[in-house]
Every structure is written in C-alpha cells, then in structure tokens.
Specification:
With about 550 residues, the protein is of the alpha/beta class. Helices cover about 30% and strands about 25% of the residues. The strands form eight sheets. It has a five-stranded parallel sheet, sandwiched between helices. Strands 18, 19, 21, 22 and 23 form a five-stranded antiparallel sheet that branches.
Length: about 550
Amino acid sequence: MIEQNSGQLEEGKPWLLHWPKGVPTHIEYPEKTLSELLDQRAKARPSDTQFIFFGRRISFQETSKTVQKLAASFQKIGVSKGTRVAVMLPNSPQFAFSYYAILKSGGVVVPVNPLYTERELNTELIDSGAELIVVLDSFYRVAKKASEGTRVKEIIVTNISDFMPKLTAVLGRLTGKIENPKITDTHIDFSSLLTMDSQYTEVDIDVRRDPAILMYTGGTTGTPKAAILTNMNLVSNAMMVSAWGNLSSSDGVLAVLPWFHVYGMTVALNMSITSGVWIVVLPRFSVHETFKAIKKYHPTTFPGVFSMYIALLNSPLFAKYKSDIRCLKSGLSGAAPLPVEIAKNWSAKTGSILAEGYGLSEASPVTHANPLDDPSHIKLGSIGIPMPDTDAKIVDMETGTRELKPMEVGELIVKGPQVGLGYWNRTEETKATFRDGWLYTGDIAYMDNDGYFYIVDRKKDMINVGGLKVWPREVEEVAYKHKAVRMAAVVGIPDNFYGEVPKLFVVLKDEFKNKVDPEEIRSFIKENLAPYKVPKVVEIKDELPTTLVGKVLRRKLKEA
C-alpha cells in the first residue's frame, strides 16, 4: 500500500513541497523476509528474468528453486538461526543464491570483499564469528589461510563459470580467461549442495529484530566494524529505491556495483525482488564490458559511483558507444560525492539523468536522493531530499541535540525503517551513533530552504588551518573545474606554522599527461578560493587509491 503526498507540509520537512511526482511519501512494508519476497515474486511471475549472466538468463522461479535446495543443504551442514556465514564472491548467480539461501535457513550473511588479504579477511572472520565461508576457487588459498584460528568449520567453493552458458564456460577455461585452480584440500563443492539429499525446515525469523546481514563498514578510515541490518531494514530500503525510480519489470539494471557492498546489494540485488527489474550481472567493473553490456541488453538504469562515470566518459571507446547509452533513463551516484562537473558532463553527453544520492551502511544504505522525475528538480552538488518514510535534520556538532535552521552547518542525522540496530560487538560505538532512534552520520551538512541537503564533508576529514575550517570537498570541486583534472582528492598534512594545511592529489586526463604541472593547477585554484583553502602542495599521480566501490581512500593518501 502506498500513499501520495497530501500537499500538507509537516513541520520541519520543507522537502515535501518539492516531492517527485509518482513517488509515495509513505509505503506499507510487508513483514516478510527477503527470501519470502523472492518466493512471492517467483510464484507471481515465474518466467520473468531476474539475472542475465554472460548471456544466460535466470528466472525468478529458477532462483527460488535453487535457493530452496541450497537452504536445505545449508541447514544439513550446520546452519541454524543466527549462524554467521561469510560470502566471499564477486557479483554472480552464486552470490545471489547463497545470500538468499543463508537468510532462508535462518543464518546471518557476512559479505566479504573478494580482494581482501589474509589479514583483512581473518579480522572479519574473527569479529563476526563466521562458521562457514562461501568462496570463489580463485580466492580459496586466501580463505583457507585466513580461516586459521577462527570458528570457520567449512569452506564452500565455486567457480565463476558454474552458472555461465556451457560454451562460454568451456571457451573461457580453454583460453585461460577463466581460472580453474585444482583444490585438493578438504572442502565442500558448491554444486554438491544443490544435489544433496536434505529437507528444509521452516525457521521463525523476527524481521525487525533478528540480524540478517553483518555489513562491515569503516574500512576507509580504520578497523572495520559491522552494522547489524535486519530483513525489515533491507526490504524497506529496496522498496524505497524502487519507488523513487518508478521501476518495474520492464526495467533493467546494469549491476556493476559489488553486491558485497550494501549499495550494490540494495540498488540491484534486493531491488530486483521488490520491483521485478531484471539485472545484467557483471562480476567487476570494466569499461569495455560495461559498454558492451549496455549495447547488447539496453538496461534502463545504471547505479554507480563517480569514478565509474569518469572512466566511461574519458574512455576512447565512449564515442563508439555513445548512441547506445541513450537507452539509459537514469543513474544514481552514491558511495562517494559526485563532482558537479562530472554530473553535468554525463548528462550532456548521454542524455541520461545522473543524480546524486546519499547513504551509509548503517542505513541499508540509501537515505537521500535527488528526484528522478524531472531533470529540473535536480540540484547539482546536493544529495537531494529524504527517501519515503525517512526523516533527516541538521544538529549542532557540540551536543547533537539542538536542531539547526536552514543553511546552518552541522551534523546530519537520519531516522527511518532502513536504519539498522547498531554495531556488532560494539556497545559503546552503538550508543554514540544510534541515539534516541536517530542515526548520527558523522557527516557535516546543511539543508537549504527547499529541504535539499548538502554534504560539506566528513567530520573527521575537516582540515584545521590555524583555526580556520577547510572542507576537502569544496577544494576538490574547484579542482574538477580545471580542464586537465580527471580525479582529485584533498587531505590535511602537518604544518609547523598553521598546524595543518591542505594537500591536493590529482590524476590528469590522458591527453594532458606531461603537459600540465602542479603549479598550474595550484594557480587555477588560487583564483577561485580564499588563500587558506588553497593547497600548499599539489601532487600529480597516475591513480588514486580507492575501494572496490570507488571511494577514495584518503587515509592511504595521508599515510603516504
């Protein structure tokens, strides 16, 4: 059940006067698990395609039946209510099957970055208390070593080609494009779980209180901690995003965002169940593969991060595929700030709406987005307005209790059904971040008079120049206006006089490499910012360190 905005302006919610057409302000969320919603979708539209994986189409019915078999087998090998199961897979049918089957069997999913080192993986396995891990054979050795000294009892192994068309899989192995390592150690083969003689037992799950996902966050700033997300958190957020994009079974999503990250998990994997969209599954982001997938399948929406759009725009292949991109109606950029110049450039060259949104792992993750109903409703540089059933406000940074007026800068806090329960094994951090029903984001922001929110920067990324505040994003936005700059990042570095000063790292566009020096870029910024905001040092690099999702790792830049 959905309700349209009645036109009444609730106190403190000016965004309701600018609400996108066709989007409900309130949604009735079903008290069901994600796996139950999958079964419902499969019964209602059994033959509809859910996944397209290297040309193979997998229907909702096939997914539902596979998940049923897998859930029964998981239970047989020891998964019961509350058992944590790590999933160390790239985007693939196996990820989706494992994800929903773990939930169906009563387990808790612990998504893991497939590129983790032994040390990083070991940290998360110990912290989560995972007892099983599902892993790609290419990463088996890392998983095996990382499992030592943890509670992991079984390692379940699959190959990326297992659910590809047979000819594609055979050719991939013959040409060496698909790894096929031989594993002689004791393990469970993923395919054997689908033929195991086992009987599924129903599990009583509280969709509001029982953990469904332990989503690790904080890897860009230090030791990761896990946000506890429930089925209701995940279902409600997927339904919000589906409604925001007005998506249905006639729409297709290009899924290059990794599903082990909550952004990709919600705006592709879970949204396929809540809206019925079909998904073009790519295991990783590749400029050429992305262009080819757009040309072949004509998806209508492409959620991503700014670095993906930059890579596509600056690719020599862009001109070849430019007309194909016209199939895209919209794209939602999240996980990291979307530079204004990139948004303008993408929309101008593709004719597709590119809107910035905002979220965080603790909120499943989406809390804000620019309206997608009309390009004129997008405010560049803004994260947009709150999602349906989501409240947000700006509070003072000292106490976090005094609500600020429009245009005043403070900490952004949010509330809604997508906000998780807290942090796993982190009582004090949970108390500090989750207060009186509000999630304290740690992001410094302001709200304009129309109810659109703007992120100034992360609280911890603020640079203190002799008592004056410098926010990295403001400097980066100016850097992106320089015609030679492809990527930019600003960090604070020690200074004997001011205590701290900004340093700018830039990656140049290919056509400007070795033709532009640091001082030229610094002079450009000097013309556009107050002296104390101008970077004392500009360093040109070949690439910037980023997470697999595309978020710049400022911590690594500072360490360097």
